[in-house]
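In the design runs reported in the main text, the only information available to the sequence generator was the tokenized backbone. The following block is the verbatim input for one such run; it is reproduced so that readers can re-run the procedure and compare outputs position by position.
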């Protein structure tokens, strides 16, 4: 697996530093303080305890702050890091028409009521959702695989969330305290930020109207965690004075954000058919043009590398084509360091997950694959051989290429990944149709005579999932 260049992650906090960076995906935006609250803080409806700035939610449809029925939010963390607290003021012109039929917790009817939602990802755990309606009914859910295994079902996650609701003539207010015990030991810090989004849904004449801290262009907030706000711990102020304050910052979409539409297959797909065969001719290709700088790297060889993706109800199909020279393949087993050979790679993070998968293939068809939570803290695990066997591969070159082929040669590598793999390991439910995942494509050849490292989406290093491009499933 690729080693990671150590990066000064504290630069992510400073807006000026981020604006000067060449890297896509580094957060920029105004810093907003979060409140540090006493260890014994409970949700009691007294929102004056939040001394930090309140921020306004925007329409999920227009991206604008509404002139009426606005929603204000503040975030707090207890000084012992045991509770995350969220306060929201939901202004409402029709308080007498609030939808609050659900009186019991963990009932799906909550989502038919007026309600607020808190979405959270942490570096070592997956996705959490807490929803509360004006009656104080709570829905709390975890999609983390370890927690699901412990609790049997996502909705059975019950960390002890508490909520307090107050109602006034022009608004309803809510304060929620979520225990942090299941969020993992990492963060929130400059190196290990938490991802967070808050939303509110109004039920108006039978129609839902939604608002969010970070609107998702009409998508449900858990679809695109890479766009959420980040909760940090800021170690210094603008003058360089040491402080210890928490806050959050928006991760905006950059104009040069890469995206690729994964087409639905029109019929049966064979990964061993030609690049311009009927199976593949109509599929758009992307070209890997971004050079990654590596210590000791040479830039005397930059092979023309393209890739296509498509999918159906059962599989995700990929086909690489490389017009190459100096080609070598000596790995003899799966899970060897195939990146040292002439290699192509597909990194992907399914919707709603902080885990990602690094599908790495050398030109002879050998494969390396890990499920990765956090490469810096070594939170990853190899995929066992029985699962690797379910991933079909095709290669035009022999399994072993040694000595190196110095003359020009065009080679292809195809792969076929069962969607069941993502269902089992990333909670994919049904077809990915209409979903947005994130991912990247790479070409490398570390131990050839002409090492090189190319990418589709420009990133700081291979293992930077928050900088991946967007994969849109047709």
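Verbatim output:
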């Amino acid at each position: 697996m690729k080693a990671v260049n150590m990066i000064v992650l504290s630069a992510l906090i400073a807006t000026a530093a981020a604006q000067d960076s060449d890297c896509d995906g580094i957060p920029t935006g105004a810093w907003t303080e979060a409140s540090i609250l006493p260890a014994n803080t409970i949700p009691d409806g007294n929102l004056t305890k939040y001394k930090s700035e309140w921020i306004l939610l925007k329409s999920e449809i227009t991206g604008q702050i509404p002139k009426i029925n606005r929603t204000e939010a503040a975030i707090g963390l207890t000084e012992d890091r045991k509770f995350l607290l969220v306060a929201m003021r939901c202004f409402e012109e029709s308080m007498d028409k609030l939808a609050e039929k659900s009186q019991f917790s963990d009932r799906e009817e909550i989502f038919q009521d007026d309600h607020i939602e808190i979405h959270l990802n942490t570096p070592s755990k997956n996705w959490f959702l807490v929803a509360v309606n004006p009656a104080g009914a709570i829905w709390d859910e975890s999609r983390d695989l370890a927690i699901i295994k412990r609790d049997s079902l996502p909705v059975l996650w019950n960390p002890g969330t508490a909520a307090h609701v107050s109602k006034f003539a022009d608004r309803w207010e809510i304060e929620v305290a979520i225990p942090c015990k299941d969020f993992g030991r990492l963060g929130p810090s400059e190196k290990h930020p938490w991802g967070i989004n808050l939303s509110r849904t109004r039920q108006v004449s039978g129609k839902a109207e939604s608002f969010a801290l970070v609107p998702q262009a009409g998508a449900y907030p858990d679809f695109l965690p890479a766009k959420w706000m980040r909760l940090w711990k800021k170690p210094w102020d603008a003058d360089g004075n040491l402080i210890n304050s928490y806050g959050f910052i928006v991760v905006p979409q950059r104009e040069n954000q890469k995206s690729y539409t994964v087409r639905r297959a029109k019929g049966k797909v064979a990964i061993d058919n030609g690049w311009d065969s009927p199976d593949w001719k109509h599929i758009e290709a992307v070209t890997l043009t971004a050079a990654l700088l590596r210590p000791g790297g040479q830039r005397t060889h930059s092979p023309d590398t393209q890739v296509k993706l498509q999918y159906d109800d059962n599989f995700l199909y990929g086909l690489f084509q490389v017009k190459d020279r100096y080609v070598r393949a000596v790995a003899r087993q799966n899970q060897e360091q195939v990146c040292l050979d002439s290699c192509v790679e597909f990194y992907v993070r399914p919707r709603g997950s902080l885990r990602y998968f690094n599908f790495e293939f050398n030109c002879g068809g050998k494969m390396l694959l890990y499920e990765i939570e956090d490469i810096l803290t070594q939170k990853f695990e190899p995929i066992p051989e029985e699962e690797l066997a379910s991933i079909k591969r095709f290669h035009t070159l022999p399994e072993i290429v040694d000595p190196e082929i110095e003359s020009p040669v065009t080679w292809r590598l195809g792969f076929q990944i069962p969607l069941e793999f993502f269902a089992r390991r990333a909670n994919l439910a049904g077809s990915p149709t209409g979903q947005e995942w994130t991912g990247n494509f790479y070409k490398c050849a570390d131990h050839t005579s002409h090492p090189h490292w190319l990418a589709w989406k420009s990133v700081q290093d291979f293992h930077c999932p928050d900088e991946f491009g967007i994969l849109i499933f047709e």
